[in-house]
Structures are given as C-alpha cells and as structure tokens.
Predict the structure.
Amino acid sequence: GAGVSQSPSNKVTEKGKDVELRCDPISGHTALYWYRQSLGQGLEFLIYFQGNSAPDKSGLPSDRFSAERTGGSVSTLTIQRTQQEDSAVYLCASSSDVKEKLFFGSGTQLSVL
Amino acid sequence: EDQVTQSPEALRLQEGESSSLNCSYTVSGLRGLFWYRQDPGKGPEFLFTLYSAGEEKEKERLKATLTKKESFLHITAPKPEDSATYLCAVRSGTASKLTFGTGTRLQVTL
C-alpha cells in the first residue's frame, strides 16, 4: 500500500481480556517497529523486526506483550490479560533499511476499562 | 542509555513570529538525529535526518541544525498550519531503534 496501515484504529477492551493489534508495513520495507505513546509521554520502543533476523524484544514491558511478523510483512502485537496501564496509542513503523527513516502508521488507540 | 530532552514543552507563537525548538541529546556514537512532526490523531511524519555536527537541512519554513550536543529546529515566519507537536529522535551505536524525546507542542495563532 501507499503507507503503513494499522487496524483497528480504536480498540476498547475490558481489563483482563486479550487484544491483537495489526500492522501492514509499506511494501518492500524489511524493518518493522512497534512503539507505544502514552498521554504526555514520548514514544516508547517496544520491538523491532529486521528481515529474517531474531527480533529485538528489549522494549517489551512485560511477558504479557508479544509480537510476530509473518512472511516478512504483516505484524501482530498481542497483549494478554490487559491492564489499565496498557491504555495508550500503539504505533507501528517501517523502513527500507535499518539506517533509514521510519514511516509511521496512524496508530491504534487502546483503551482498557 | 541514549537520552533526548526537548524544550520548551509547549510554545505559542503569533503568525510570522520566528523561534527555535531545542533538542539536547546524550548518545554513544550518534548515527542520526531525526525530526518528526505529529498532528493530533496521526502518526509522526518525517521531516529531517542530520548525521554530523555542522550539518543543516531546510524545508519550507523549517531549518534543522546539529551540534555535538544538541539540535535546533528553527521556524521562520510560522503559519497556523505549522501548529503540531515536533519530535526529536536519535539512533546510536549499533542500535536499530530510535529513541524519542517527549516533543514540543507548537501553536501558531493569527
């Protein structure tokens, strides 16, 4: 597609439920990132995928968070047993190379009640 | 650990009133300093990348500069459509990720 696509754009869930967030990167981009942006906070790095290499999971805040990237393209971020502090905008970005600029999607606004 | 500090947190300008936003950074081996613009409800949009001290880049009313400790985003004769949050980020060493500051919220009024 023309840009990075994320779905859903908004997700409201109850505490304790699992959620899946989807990211479609720009076609041909080998690098894919997930960030989290809380109100008034900077972007917090979560996880990075580059081609077939092992992902950099160093930013995942707990073992409730996981992500996968299938076929080097679409990525899914899964949050298990959601907590209220998980409420934030989850942003996905892709780039053509690890040295290049990141192109961001519009994000998924997650609200945990 | 990489650190990025942006100031001021918020800035209100009148149309045509030029100013500068600051981004101070601490990294181990800078491999790029990035400026992004973010509008409400949208993801960050890329503006500039700077790689070495002394480098400058311009786009319309925006000009970014870089020293060994900080970067400035100069806004000349701003217009209301320049209102947005401006984010600074760095990539360092062998890291793949970008480390972001918390941004400067710019409001330009008529």
Remarks:
- DSSP finds no helices and ten strands in chain A.
- Chain A touches chain B at residues 4, 31, 33, 35, 40-43, 45, 48, 50, 56, 59, 91, 93, 98-99, 101-107 (CB under 8 Å).
